[in-house]
Each structure stands twice: as C-alpha cells, then as structure tokens.
Amino acid sequence: MTNKTAAPEDKFQQERAAREALAFGLSDLLEDKKAGNVLLLDLEHVNPYFSIFLIATATSQVQLKSLTRDIYKQFGDQLPRGQGGSGPDDVSSGWVIVDFIDIVVHLFTQEKREFYNLERLWGDGKILRGEL
Question: What CA–CA distance (Å, rounded) separates 119 from 132?
Fold first, then answer.
C-alpha cells in the first residue's frame, strides 16, 4: 500500500522551490542591471497574501523604466495573463510594482523608497538576499 499523504507536501515543496528560483532570478537580473540595495524578503509566515517581496532602488526615472522593461522582457512569460502591475512606461510616480502573485517586485527611486520604507513595514520577514 502506497502512502498518498506525502504528495501534497511534495507539491508544496516543488512550488516553493519554483517560487524561490524565480525570485532569485529576478534579483540576479536587478543586480546585474545595477539596481541599488536589492532586498529579497520571504513573507510567507508574515502575510497570507503573498510569499516574497523583492525591493530595489533605481538611480533615476530612466533606470526605473529600464529595469521594469528588463523584467518584462526576461520574465514576462511568467506573469499572470492580463495582470502584472505597473507597466514599463508607468514610472512617473517613482514606484513600479510588478506582481507575479506570490512574488511582488517593488522598484523605487531613492526618494520614494525612503518615503514608503517597505523594509520597516515588512521587517518581520526573513531576508533571503540583501540586508535591512
């Protein structure tokens, strides 16, 4: 007789591994493109609505737009159909959100990052990369 209770746990572990691989891939891209202060937070045990926040700083509106475009170019096929948050041309606010459902990417200009200070709000999360 086969133990079928392990299957949901295996699926959960596979989904978690895929989620983390995507998050680290996004983080690597932002670091390669010279985004500042890249921070990857695991919020799975802090908030039931999303698992990971990726927060990074752009040095200018031009870089903010470029980082957003690069995310859409390299990872756009993994965004939920018809969703995804801010588009690459929606950078005027200084805060761009790209929503992969379980992973939410927050790209800021320095001024907006300091103002909204998501690190303080979500500081109970486990740091996967970067530092507070």
Answer: 7
